[in-house]
Amino acid sequence: MVGIDLGGRTTKAVLLQQREGRYFLNRYAVLDAPIYEKSLSVELLTEHLKAVCQALDAKGNPAAIAVGVNHALMRHVEMPRMPVGDMRMVLKNNSRNYLQEDLANYVFDCFIVLQRTGPGTAEAGKVATSNPKQKVLVAGAKKQLVEDFLIATKAAGLVADHIVPGLLGPVNAFEAAMPEVFSRSIVALVDIGFKHTSIAIIAEGELVLSRVVAIGGDRFSAGLAESMGISYAEAEGIKVGMAGEVQQALEPLLTPLGRELRASIDFFEHQQDRPIMQVYVSGGSAKSEFILQLLQNELVVECKTWMPTTFLQLMLPPAQMAEIDQIAPQLTTALGAGLAAL
Which of 46, 132, 42, 119 lies closest to 82 in space, CA to CA? Predict the structure, then answer.
């Protein structure tokens, strides 16, 4: 399975294999994303996916593509108890009733969130069964976008298997890499992308809250370039290295992100009356100890990076094997997309 994360600046892709209950990482690729203003044409997307296919040596393989927050929505809603196929039709015909906006020409998919009941909660289970509504995780994207992806994927020599919201990538990868923490703890997953940062709160195996903040690595690099009088490329190069003057310039750029993420954590803790114990950070900026420390200061919760590849058997070429520890935090969403399809 090919997992592809179409990022704002770089596309990350992985070639995964499942065999005898184990997962193998055979190859990965990090490529510059196409430069485009408003929408990515089918022709441009096709050429880009051909480059991904060639880099992975994956022609003819099935592919799962993670769609970014600009192109896909994901919401928790309550819907009447009915088959998933009927839910899709209801949302298609009456999206405003459940999603608070008219989403004409969208396609939807739904995942029923099962009610969790512990020992001695038989009565609670009866109440849940009698409830005419159920919690559902809804994902949607424009029909034209999905059709364009299907055409481009086929033209690039891949077999379109899954199109998934990028927000789910870190969640899927974290469940595979750290199953005990995923199923037993209350944690926040923060993925710092190019234009956006996502936060997903996991409570004992259930995704209970997700949010996207329009602050990412691009703002950090642009802010550093402006404040230090250097080029964007130079700022990008020193952002993770962190000399003292870089840290001083970066701190005011990171503070707004920390406050936005803290607001999401506060919302969950006030609603659920349960504390978040740890924050796990992924994305290219997660490689900086200084960025992690600044986020920890703002969130007042321990922040740490994590390796999304720990559950994988690595069958990489020698050059990629030598670099995987550095690249791994950037592959989180691509790995999660591939896992969704395997």
Answer: 132
Q: What is the CA radius of gyration of the chain?
A: 20
Are the CB atoms for 303 and 296 separated by under 8 Å? yes
The region, left, alpha or beta by phi > 0 then psi within -120 to 50, assigned to residue 100 is left
| Lowest-pLDDT choice from 155-169, 231-245, 255-269 | 231-245
State the number of CA atoms in the 13 A half-sphere of 210 facing the CB: 22
Of the candidates 27, 5, 62, the one whose C-alpha atom is nearest the C-alpha of residue 319 is 27
What pLDDT, on the 0 to 100 scale, is given for residue 24?
A: 98
Q: Span 29-50, mean pLDDT?
A: 86
Taking the C-alpha atoms of residue 54 and residue 33, their distance in angstroms, rounded to an integer, is 15
Give the pairing of strands 302-305 and 278-282: parallel
* Contact in structure between 16 and 340 (CB atoms under 8 Å): no
Neighbour tally for 134: CB within 10 Å: 18
**Does the pLDDT value for residue 122 go beyond 80?**
no
**Residue 165 in this model has a pLDDT that exceeds 70:** yes
Identify the structural domains of the chain with CATH numbers, from first to last.
179-305 (3.30.420.40)
Q: For residue 106, what are its two tokens? A: 């969208």
Q: Is the pLDDT of residue 124 over 50?
A: no
Question: Please, which residues bridge with residue 314 across strands?
Answer: 25
The CA angle 289-170-261, to the nearest 5 degrees, is 60
Tell me the CA distances in angstroms from 68 to 1, 9, 145, one per residue in order.
Answer: 19, 12, 12
User: How are the residues of the chain apportioned to helix, strand and coil, as percentages rounded to the nearest 5?
Assistant: 45, 30, 25
Helix residue ranges, H only, 95-136: 95-99, 122-130
281 SS3 class: strand
pLDDT at residue 247 greater than cutoff 80: no
Q: Is 80 a residue whose pLDDT tops 50?
A: yes
* End-to-end CA separation in angstroms for the chain: 7
Percentage above 70 pLDDT, the chain: 92
The whole-angstrom separation of Cα 124 and Cα 248 is 53
Which amino acid appears at position 119 of this protein?
P
Q: Report pLDDT for 115.
A: 67
